[in-house]
Structure formats: structure tokens, C-alpha cells
Amino acid sequence: METVYLFFAEGTEEVEALAVVDILRRAGIETRIVSVTEDRFVTGAHGIRVEADMLMGEVDFSKAAMLVLPGGLPGAYNLASHEGLAARIMQQYEHNKPLAAICAAPLVYGRMGLLDGVKATCYPGFEENMKGASCTGKLVEEDGLFITGKGPAAVFEFGYAIVTRLVGKEKAEEVRSGMLYNEVR
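Now predict its structure.
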């Protein structure tokens, strides 16, 4: 079974990480939180300590359905500076497999030059890091291999977009309805 790997660094935006994991698991998608540090316990941007499911060295990237990067500061910069993660992102990209990022984290793909000619969105003020991308400012943007989200308020739509991409619109609507999200819209 393919797995979604969500990468958690020191300073990651907790809601962007945990809400996405919650939504994907509700959809029955195997999803694992991966610490990019040497420790399974990682502290997020708002002081919430999260226990990751695994460390970077334990990931079987051959089973990666999608790689997901939550934002937050300095979390997005910590993800961007992780050479091992960059190599795995490039491998995923070269194998034409989907990538997602929200808030400040699309800067990882932008700095790697992967967003050239791609419509994308990010947290306002981070557009300068989106090398070659057409920044739309939408809450969620999907183009080619990429799903990008604007920020914390986009986390539900971002999560449902990932579910739609991986297991279909019907399952995304089922999860959305079960979470009562349709009552908010």
C-alpha cells in the first residue's frame, strides 16, 4: 500500500500538519508523520510537541504516494535546508508523483526550481521564493503534480484536495460531510 509522508520540522505550523493527517486518515489513506530531526518528538511553531510516527531514515520512499510539507516558521525554512528531504522530493518529482505544500512551505519547491510554469499559492509575502511559479493567491491551487495551499485557513480545502487526488472526489465529499465541513461553507 502506498503511503503519504508528511514532514515535520522544528517550527512547523501544527494545525497545517495535524489537520491534514487527520483528514487523510479519515479517508483511509495511510499517512505517516516523519520527523526531519534526530528525534521523534518535534516542537511546532506554537510550542506544541508532536510525536512523529517515524524518522527520516525509516521512510520507504518507494511506497510514497505523495510528499506533503506543512508551513510555519521556522519550519518551512528547516524543511528547505534539509538535503536528504530535497533529494527525496526531487526523486518524487522525477517519478512524476504528486507533491503538496501549504503556507510558507511551497517555498521549498520554488527554491528547487520545480514550480517553473506552475500555478501555485502560498502565504502572502512568500511569493519571491516561488521561482517561476504563477502565484494566484487562491486558497488552494492544483496544477500538474502540485497541490499548494495559502495558509492555516486553507488547511481543510487543502486536505480535501489531497484526498480527491489520491482516492477520488466521492471519498473527499464523504469525509467533508462527516466532518460537518459543508455546514461551514
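The first strand starts at residue 3 and ends at 8.
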